[in-house]
Amino acid sequence: MATPTALPPLPFNPSRARSYLLRLPLFTRLVLLAALVFWLLELQTVWSVVQWGALTPNEINLGTMYRLNTYPLIHVGFFHFILNVVALTPLLERFEAEHGTLTAVALFIGPLSTLPAGLYLLIEKGIFNRNASVVGASVWVFLLLASEAIRTFKSHPYFSLGSTKIPTWTSPLFVCAVVSALVPNTSFLGHMCAIAVGYLLGLGYLKVFVPPEKILRWIEGKLNLLGRLPHYVSVDQKTFGRYGVLPTSAPVGDRPHQSAVVPPRSVVHLQIINNINWVYFPDRHQHQCREVTDLMALKSAIRKLRSNPQFLYVRLPYLLSFLCIVAGVVWLALLPLDDYSRRTYISENALLPGQVHAYFSGSEQNVFRGYKKEIESLLPASYHEVQESGVRDAEFTPVVSDKIQSILRAAGLKVATQNYEYSSSGITHQGQNTYAIINAPRGDATEAIVLVAAWKTADGELNLNGVTLALTLARYFKRWSLWSKDIIFVFPPDSKSGTQAWIDAYHDMQPASIQPLPLKSGALQGGLVIEYPFDHRFESIHIVYDGVNGQLPNLDLFNTAVAIAGGQMGIGASLQEMWDHKNDYRARLETILRGMLKQGLGYATGAHSSFMPYHIDAITLQPKGEGWQDEMALGRTVESLCRSLNNLLEHLHQSFFFYLLMHTNRFVSIGTYLPSAMLVAGNFTIMAIALWMRTGYKSRAAVKSSDEQSSDGKPSGEKPSDEKSEVEQKSSQTETKDATGTTERQLALPLSLVVGLHLLGLIPLYTFNNLSYKYYTPATYAYILADILLPIFLSALLTSSSTNTTTNPHQHHLIKSFSLLPLGLFLSTLATLNFSLSFIIGLLCTPLTFIHRIPKTASIPAPLRYALALTGLVLLNLLSPPVVLLAACTYSGTSVETVLTQAAFGWDVWGMWTQVVVWCVWWPAWLSGGALLGCSFF
Amino acid sequence: MSLDRRKAGVFAAAFLLRLLLIVLFPSLPDLLTGRVEVSTPVSSFKRLQEGLFLYTRNVSPYDGGVFHQAPLLLPIFALLPNSRDSPLPSVIFYSLIDLLNANALIAISDSGQAVSGRFYSALRKHIRWDGFAIAAWFLFNPFTIATCLGRSTMVFTTSGILYAVSSAVSGNSFNAMLALGWASYLSIYPALLFIPLVLLCYDVRAQRTKAAPGLAVFVLQHLAVLLLSVAGLLGMSFLIIGNFSQIISATYGFQLLVPDLTPNVGLWWYFFIEIFDSFREFFLGVFWLHLTAYVGGLTVRLRRQPLFVCTALLGVFAIFKPYPSISDASLFLALLPLYRHLFPLMRYTFFAVAAILYATLLGPAFYHLWIYAGSGNANFFYAITLVWSLGLSILLADTIFAALRDEWELENPHLRGKDVKQV
What we know:
Number of strands of chain A: 13
Radius of gyration of chain A: 38 Å
Structural class of chain A: alpha/beta
CATH topology of the largest domain in chain A: Aminopeptidase
GO molecular function (chain A): serine-type endopeptidase activity
Subcellular location (chain A): Membrane
Structural class of chain B: mainly alpha
Distance between the termini of chain A: 43 Å
Protein name (chain B): Major facilitator superfamily permease Cdc91p
Keywords (chain A): Membrane, Transmembrane, Transmembrane helix
Oligomer: heterodimer
Mean pLDDT of chain B: 90
Number of helices of chain A: 36
Number of strands of chain B: 0
Radius of gyration of chain B: 21 Å
Largest interface: A-B, 28 and 28 residues
Number of helices of chain B: 18
Protein name (chain A): Gaa1-domain-containing protein
C-alpha cells in the first residue's frame, strides 16, 4: 500500500509464481497430478506402487509392458518426488507450450518414455546382465534437458572457460555426472539413456513419431478439445511458440495496465494475456474471455478468503485445532503397525544376556525347601488354616525378621535393619526393612545390584516363595567369586512403602520418620524384584516395569529379562497383564493403552517403582499361570539377569528411557510417539494464539469493513451482528486504536482471573492430600457440587464486574486465550516427562478448545441460547475432574476412597505429582471454560 | 495520599506473599537456592554460606575456591543468624531489599524521564502506568520472587543499578555514581552503564539549570567519582580480607575469565564447554567484546533517550552476560513497563512471552531429565536456554524497534500510523 514506488521489486514475486502455476498447460498438469497420486498411493503399505510400476529388467514381459510407461510417474519418496517435479515442471511446460498438448501426449506416452526404457533394458540386461530397477520422472528431465541443449548448441555452439571451448551440448552430461555423484541411489545408466534419446529428439530424428499436423487438427476440430479442456494448448497456438509474442508488442496503449500501477500485478497479467489472445486469435476471443473471467473469479475468491478475517481468525483455528486432535489420536492408533514400531534389541553390548550357564539347580532346591520350612514354621497357625481358601495374609513379625537375618548371617552376609514409619491420610504405615550385602570379590564396593523380595507382593499376597528364593540365592551367590558388583538383598515387609523408605535412606534423602541405613554399598546399577506368591509351578514370567510418575527403566533391562527368560530358559514372558497376547493389531494397541494408563496415573506398580526416581533401572518378575516351570527356573533367570548386570561397565544408558511397549519384542520410541501428544497439546496453543490475534485484529477488520461499507455499500454479511456492533464502537474509540491497526487489549481482568484460578487449584490439591481417608468420598461429591456451581458463580461475577458490555466478548476471548495458553504449555512440557498423562489430560480437555460463550445474536433466540448453554454445561460437567474420577472408579470397580487414599499415599511417600497436573492444570482450564459457557446465561 | 496508601498496600502484600510462601513451603528457599536458573557461581547463596563459614573462622573466604563474590557482603551477612538453622531472617532481609528496589522503581517512574526527557517527548505519553503498578509488576513477578527466595546476591547488584538510575533521574548525579560504583564493585558489568547513565545525569542537570557545565568536564568529574567509589570499596575489602590479589583474581578474575561452566540460563557455558582450549582466550575476548559493543551503538543511536539505553542494555546483559540468571531478566522486565507507551508499537509481545513461558516450564523439566532422570542430556537444557534467550531477544529487539518507531513518528508526523518498510 504505502510501499514507495522507488523501491526495487522483490526478487521473488509470489503473485508471479502463482500466475505461473495457474497457467501451466494441460498435459503438464496431468503429469504432475499423476505423479502426486502415485506418490500418495505409495504412502499406504498394502500395495507397493514401486514394485508394481518400476522398470525392472527381469520383470519385463508381454504382460508387464505397462512398466515402460508407468515408471516415470512413480517416485520412491517425498524428496525424490518433489525434486523431480520441480525440475520437470518448467521443462515440460515449455515443451508442451511449443508443441501443443496433443503432440506432447503422443510423444510422452509413447516414444519418449518407451525409447529410453528400451535402451536402458537393452544395456542393463543385455550388456551388464544386472537387474537394477529404475523409477522416477528424472528420465524426462534429462531427456528434455538434452534436447534443449541441442537447441542451445545450434545457436551458441560453445561457451568458453578460460581458453578452452566447451561445446554446449555436453552440459546435460555434466549435470548427469554431478547428480549421480551427489545424490545417492541414482541410476547413471538410466539418465544416460534418457540423454541419448534427448539428443535424438533435439536433432530431429524422432520427428517420425510426431503425428502429422493434419490429423491433430482434425482430432482437435472434431472433438472441440479447445472448448472442452481447460489449459489446453492447441496445434495452432504452438506455431507461435513460447516466445513468439511479447506483451509489449501488443497494441494496448490505451489499456489501463500501462497507465498506472493501480491494479495488482496479476490482474495486469491477465489482461495482457487477454489482449494477446484477442489480437492474435480474434475468433477465440469469446472463449478466452470466459476463461479469463473464470480465472478472475477464482482469484478474487482466493484473495477474499485471505483477507477474510472471519475465516482466518474464527473458522481456521477451529479447523486446525480439530485437525491436530484427530491427527494426534490417529497417530497413536497407527503406532501398533509394523511400519511405525520396531523390534526390540539389546543396545548395550556389555549385557550379553543369556551367554552364561546358570548353575542354580539341583542341591539348591533342597536348600530352598529347607528355608521355606523354617520360615513357614514361624507363621501363625491361622496361615495354614486359611491356606486352602486361598486367602493368605501373614504379618511380617519380628520373629520372621530375626529368622531371615539369621539365615543371611549364616550364609556369611552382612545384615542390617531399618525401621520406618509413614503416615498418610490418617493411616500409619510402619515396618522394618531387613537387608544384607554380598561384598563383591572382584569389585571395590562402588557399584551394586539390588534384589528385592517383599514379604507382601504389590497385590497384597504373601510372597513366601519369593522371599525364600531370595534367601537361597543369597546363600548361592555368596559362594561365587565372579561378582564385580556388590549384591544387596532387601526384604521389605510390603511392596508399597518399604522399598521407598530403604532407597530414600540409601541416598540420605529420608524424612525424619525413617531411620538412616547403618550399612551401605556403592551406586546402584539395577534392581530386580522377585514375586512368587503361590506354591504351584508356573508357566510364564510377567514383567512389570512402570515406575512412579511414568518413569520407565532403560529398555535394555526389559529386553535382557525377555531375552533370558525366553531365549535361555524357555519361559515365556508377558507384560501389562496381557496373558493371551496374539500379537495382532488389537492386542498390541491394548497393550499400549494399558501401559499408557499405568504411566499416566503415575502410581507405583510394584516394589521396583521406587527405584526409578533415583535413576536406578528396576523391574519386577512375577511368575504367572499353571505350567511346569518351578522356582529353580525363576532362580536361574534371576541368576542369569544378575550375571548380565554384573557385566555392565557403566550405568545403563544405551537404550531408550522413553518407549511404549506393545509386545515383549516390539516397541515404539519417543521420537515416533511424541508427536501424538504434542499435536493434542498444540491444539490449545493454536487456539490461544488465534484468539490473541483475533482480539488485536478486530479493529483493523472493522476499519476496513467500515471503509468498504462507506465506499461501495457492500456489507460484510457473514459477520455476526454483535461483533459488528462491537467492532463499530471499537473503531469509534479512536484513542484506543493505534496507528498500526492493533488495539490495546484489556489484559488485567483476564490475566488475574486465569492466575487466580490456577492458584485456586491449590485448595483441592491440599484437601485431597491431607484429608483423612474417611472423608474422601464426601469430599469428591462436594467438589462435584462445587464444579457445578463455580462456573456459574464465576460467570455472574464476570458479567457484573465489567459494566461495559461491548468489551465483554473481547474479554472472553482473552480469558479463553490465557487459559488455553498455559494448558498447552503445561501439556507440551508434560509430554516430555510423562507422555501418557499429557495425552490423557489433553484428550479430556479437548472440548475446552471448542466451547465458548454463546453470543447474544438475533439468529439464536434467548431460550435456545439458554438451552444450549445448559446442555453445554451439563456435558462439560461430565468431563470435570471429580466426575471423571468417579466414572473411572465405577468402571473399574474400585472405590473412590481406595483410589484417593492410594493417590494421597503416592503424594506423601512416592513423590507422585499426578494430582498437581489434575488440580493445577486441568481443573483451572476446565473452570475457565465452564465460566465462559456460563456467561451465555447473562 | 491515596498513592502512598496503595504503595503501602502493594509493599505489604508483596512482603506477606514472600512470608506466606516460606511458611507454607519451608523447603522452597533451599530448593530455589540450588536451582541453576536462580543461582549462578557468582551469586549463589550456598557459595556465600561457604565463604561466610570460612570468614567467621578467620580463614580467607576465597581459599575454598568456591566463593567468588565481593568481600563486603561477608560482614553484612555475618550479622544475620545462620540461615541453615533459621532461613526466615535471611528471607526477610532479601524481601526488604526487594521492597527497596521497588521503591527506587517508583522514583524512576514518577520522574517521568521515561516518557519525556531533555530532547524528547513521547507521542503516547498518556498511556502509562503508575509507579505503584510498576512496583507491583516488579514485586509480583515470579522471577523476582524466585530470586528473592533463592537469596541470590544478584539482588544487591540490582538495587545498586536501580538506585543509580533513580538518583540520576532525580538529578542527584553524585549519588548515582556512588550507587553505580557499588553495583560495579559487586559484579563488574554494571560499569558498562556508565556512559548512558552519565548522559542521563547530564540531561537532567541541563534540564534543571540553564547554565550547565561542559559535557566533557561533567563526564570526567563523574568518572572520577565512580572510580573513587570503587576504589574506596576495594580498599575496605582489603581491610577485611587482606590479600588483595586474591580478592581480585577470585572475584573479578572469575567473572571475566569464566572458568566455572556450571549450567545457567545464558549462552556462554555450553559454548565454552565445547570449545577447544586453544581458542578459549580468543572467544572469551570476542564474547566480552560483543557484550560491550552494544553500549556505544545504543548510546549513539538513542542519544535522546539515555534511560531507554540503560533499559535496553540491562536486557542485553540479561541475555549475553557470562553468568546470567532469572534475576537479570526480572530486572529488565521490571524496567520495561516504564515504556508502557511503547507497548502499542510492539509487534511480537505474545510470541516473545510465549517463548519465555515455554522456556520457563521446559527448562526445569529438561534439567530434571538431564541431571536426575538421566534420560536426557545436556543438549536438552541447552536448547531451552537458547529458547529463553531467543524470547528475551525478541522482546528486547521489539522494544528497541518500538522506541525507534516512536522517535521516527515524532520526526515525521505526516507518516504517523502508516505502514513503513525499512530498506
